[in-house]
Amino acid sequence: MEQSLTPAFLLSTWDVAQPLSTFLEDLLATPIPPNPTGMDPFIAINQQRVKRIRKTVQLTDATRIAVGAMPGGLKWLVINEHWCGDGAQILPVVEAVQQAAGGKVEVRALFRDQNLEVMDAFLTNGARGIPKVVGMDAEGRVYGTFGPRPEEASDLVKEIKADPERAHTYSEALHKWYAADKQQAIQRELVRDLMAAAPVV
Questions:
Q1: Whether 136 contacts 71, CB under 8 Å
Q2: In angstroms, how far is CA 83 from the centroid of its own chain?
Q3: Under a CB-based contact definition with an 8 Å cutoff, are residues 131 and 148 in contact?
Q4: Residues 64 and 97: beta-carbon distance below 8 Å
Q5: How does residue 1 score in pLDDT terms, banded at 50, 70 and 90?
Q6: 3-class SS at 36?
Q7: Backbone dihedral region for residue 181 (phi beyond 0: left; psi -120 to 50: alpha; all else: beta)
Q8: Phi, psi (degrees; rounded to nearest 5) at 172
Q9: Which single residue of 37, 46, 108, 167 has CA 20 to 30 Å from 99?
Q10: CA end-to-end distance (rounded Å), the chain
C-alpha cells in the first residue's frame, strides 16, 4: 500500500463517490452497441456476472461472525471500472457484506481513470490494479485495503502469464477459478483485510 493522501482529501473524495449499489446499477444500465468494440464486450460479460452473483452469493458463517463484530462508522471506498472482470466478481460480494452489516459500513465507488490521484496512492506492485477497496474510519484514516483480486487468483494469473504459450488464456482460467471458488476466497480476505483489521472505537 502506497497511501500518502491526507484524511481530509480522502473524505472530500468520499463525498463525491457514488454509493456502491448505484455504481453497480450504472454498470447494468450501460448500453452495449450492436457491434461491440473496445471494452464493450467486457462490460456485457460483466453485466451478466454481476446479475448472477447478486442472486447467488451466500455469506459464510465466518463472514457473518466478522460482520457482527465490526465497529460502526466504517467507510469502504472502491476504485474500479465497469470493464474490470475482477470487479464484477468481487463488488457484488462487497455489496452483500454492506447489506449484512446493517449500517456499520458504508461503501462508495469511484471510477479509476477519473481519479488517478486516488488510485496512485493505492498501487499494487506499482500497478493500478482494480478493484481496490480502501477501508477508512469515520475521520478518513486508512486502516487497510483489499484487492485487486484474492491471493490465490493472483498467483494463478502470475503463473499463467509466465508461460508465453498459455499467457493469452489467463482470463478464461481466472474466471473459471472464480466460478469454482464461489466467492469463498473473496470473503476470507475481506474479513482479514477490512473486517478483522477494523479499528476498535
A1: no
A2: 13
A3: yes
A4: no
A5: very low
A6: coil
A7: alpha
A8: -60, -45
A9: 46
A10: 23
Q: How far apart are CA 119 and CA 113, in angstroms?
A: 8
Nearest C-alpha neighbor of 60 from the set 186, 174, 194, 177:
186
**What distance in Å separates the CA atoms of residue 154 and residue 40, rounded to the nearest whole number?**
24
Read off φ and ψ for residue 94, nearest 5 degrees: -60, -40
pLDDT at 34 > cutoff 90: no
98-116 pLDDT, tens digit per residue, is 999 999 999 999 999 999 9
Query: Looking up cell 447494468, which residue turns up?
Result: 28
- The residue-averaged pLDDT of 89-104 equals 98
The pTM for the full model equals 0.95
The grid coordinates listed for 14 are 468520499
Torsion of Cα atoms, 16 then 200 then 186 then 13, to 10° = 10
Closest by CA to 50, choosing from 114, 126, 6, 109, is 109
Is 53 in a helix, a strand, or coil? Answer: helix
Residues 72/103, Cβ–Cβ less than 8 Å: yes
How would you class 136 by CB atoms within 10 Å of its CB: exposed for 0-12, middle for 13-18, buried for 19 or more? Answer: buried
Instruction: Provide the H-helix boundaries in 17-150.
Output: 20-29, 40-56, 61-69, 85-100, 116-119
Write the CB contacts of 75 (distance below 8 Å, at least 6 apart in sequence): 14, 105, 106, 107, 108, 135, 136, 137, 138, 140
